[in-house]
Automatic annotation (TrEMBL):
Protein name stated in the entry: Decaprenylphospho-beta-D-erythro-pentofuranosid-2-ulose 2-reductase
Enzyme's top EC category: oxidoreductase
Lineage: Bacteria, Bacillati, Actinomycetota, Actinomycetes, Kitasatosporales
Family: Belongs to the short-chain dehydrogenases/reductases (SDR) family.
UniProt-listed InterPro entries: NAD(P)-bd_dom_sf, Sc_DH/Rdtase_CS, SDR_fam
């Protein structure tokens, strides 16, 4: 069960090598969290992440999980929930893709959409049902400000995050009053392996800053978290710009 501050004692990460997810887990382990499941494709990176968290004092187990194999999601998550209640599920998997290349290779664009949206829809519904069955818990979904408005530079990725964001908001409404809390996290440009070599956008942030915002959001039982918070105002303005003006912006 969660502690008096709303922080989880047990959690499951879907996308167990995500830098944002691991920064969040380390932060929570330093507070109260003791049981951690890392779900992802079996790899040295996944095992390395698990070992680092064990060194930090957590009891860590891994489970094979593939976002692109939705038919396996019920079995994979079922193994975790069969071992005991999970206070927090952090849905953190996703791919950025290569916009210029993916426009020329539609199947690559489909893979981005299947990972970021359809895979997340399946995993999110399975997790939500399990949380609802136990009567409590939080589902934190890593979205992106890229989903707020399609940009020429990354509309394939942005459209997949737009779908994910809308799904997570609707799921939160569907679960309202059940004891299950859904929180959507919308970071801006995050300095990480995923964005290495890319030109940094204004108001760039770090995995650690996103982790801190997630912790605060859990304490407050927030439904939407922007990182940094100033992006709420920026994106509200951008969302309402006429398209003729928006097209001329260097975004």
């Amino acid at each position: 069960m969660k502690d008096a501050f709303g922080l989880p004692q047990s959690l499951l990460v879907l996308g167990g090598t995500s830098e944002i997810a691991l920064a969040t887990v380390r932060r929570l382990v330093a507070r109260r969290t003791r049981t951690v499941w890392l779900a992802g494709r079996p790899s040295p990176a996944l095992e390395g992440a698990a070992e680092q968290l064990r060194d930090a004092g957590a009891e860590v187990r891994t489970v094979a999980f593939d976002a692109l194999d939705p038919e396996s999601h019920e079995e994979a998550l079922g193994k975790v929930f069969a071992e005991g209640d999970i206070d927090l599920v952090l849905l953190a998997f996703g791919v950025l893709g290569d916009q210029a290349h993916d426009e020329r290779e539609p199947l690559n664009a489909v893979r981005v959409a299947q990972t970021n949206y359809t895979g997340a829809v399946c995993a999110g519904l399975v997790a939500a049902r399990s949380l609802q069955a136990q009567g409590h818990g939080s589902l934190v979904v890593l979205s992106s400000v890229a989903g707020e408005r399609a940009r020429r530079a990354n509309f394939i990725y942005g459209s997949s995050k737009a779908g994910l964001d809308a799904f997570a908001q609707g799921l939160g409404d569907a679960l309202h009053g059940t004891g299950v809390h859904v929180m959507v996290v919308r970071p801006g440009f995050v300095r990480s392996r995923m964005t290495e070599g890319m030109e940094e956008a204004p108001l760039a942030t770090t995995p650690g800053a996103v982790a801190a915002a997630i912790e605060l959001g859990l304490r407050r039982r927030s439904e939407t978290v922007w990182v940094p918070g100033a992006l709420r105002v920026v994106m509200s303005a951008l969302r309402h710009l006429p398209r003729t003006v928006f097209r001329r912006l260097p975004v």
